[in-house]
Amino acid sequence: MPRLLCLLALATFVPALRADLFFDATLLPGNEVPPHVTPAFGFITMDLHADMTTLDVAETFNNLTVVATAAHIHCCAPAGTNASVVLPFVGFPSTVSGTYTHTFNLNTDLTGINAATFITALQTGNTYANIHNATFPGGEIRGQLTAVPEPHSVVVLGGCLLALALFRRRFA
After folding, report:
1. Is 34 helix (H, G, I), strand (E, B) or coil?
2. Long-range CB contacts (< 8 A, 24+ apart) of 46-53?
3. In degrees rounded to 5, what are phi and psi of residue 153?
4. Cα(8)–Cα(5) distance, rounded to whole angstroms?
5. Closest Cα partner for 124 from 89, 169, 164, 77?
6. What ranges in the chain are assigned the alpha helix state H?
7. Rounded to two decimals, what is the model's pTM?
8. How far apart are CA 22 and CA 11, in angstroms?
9. What is the predicted pLDDT for the residue at 149?
10. What are the b/e assignments for 127-148, b being 16+ CB within 10 Å?
11. What angle (nearest 5°) sits at the alpha carbon of residue 28, between those of residues 145 and 63?
């Protein structure tokens, strides 16, 4: 009976497979290639909508050594290697601390890559975000983007595994 209940509970989350995908990264100077030391830091979160063409980006940053000159997402490279810019952050603020939010259309805003290749790289951890300035033209802070697990399915799966373990223990 617990197995059936777990299967039914998991089946209710099948629509979640078509839900938005979330990604985030902590931006630090030590993540740059080559790494360096500054007081700067930041954080980025991204929401890839279920339509797989709309990407919401929200980024915060603090304590850059001089004002930002550019920010963007690079693809397609694992952590510790450099790659080309594929998604420039238009209208990024020229400040040392601030926030940035923008909604991108992956069918029109990507450069040098198609949406399918970009999404695959994003899902496999082969993209990174960084912020550049005059002191660090190669980037002052950087973070490798990673997928954020969808919490509801994880909780249901954990509950089902716990129920199965208790069921086995009770009848063992």
Report:
1. coil
2. 46/22, 46/122, 46/145, 47/20, 47/21, 47/22, 48/20, 48/21, 48/22, 48/23, 48/119, 48/122, 49/20, 50/18, 50/19, 50/20, 52/106, 52/115, 52/119, 53/105, 53/106, 53/107, 53/115
3. -65, -40
4. 5
5. 77
6. 2-11, 115-123, 151-171
7. 0.78
8. 21
9. 85
10. bbbbbbbeebeebbbbbbbbee
11. 130
Cα 118 from Cα 92, distance rounded (Å): 21
Q: Residues 27-70: pLDDT tens digits?
A: 999 999 999 999 999 999 999 999 999 999 999 999 999 999 99
**Vertex 133 angle, CA 130 and 134, to 5°:** 150
Q: What is the largest CA-CA distance in the chain?
A: 67
The tokens describing 129, both together, are 């975000």
pLDDT per residue as tens digits for the range 68-82: 999 999 999 999 999
State percent of the chain over pLDDT 70: 76
Q: Is the peptide bond before 34 cis (omega within 30 degrees of 0)?
A: yes
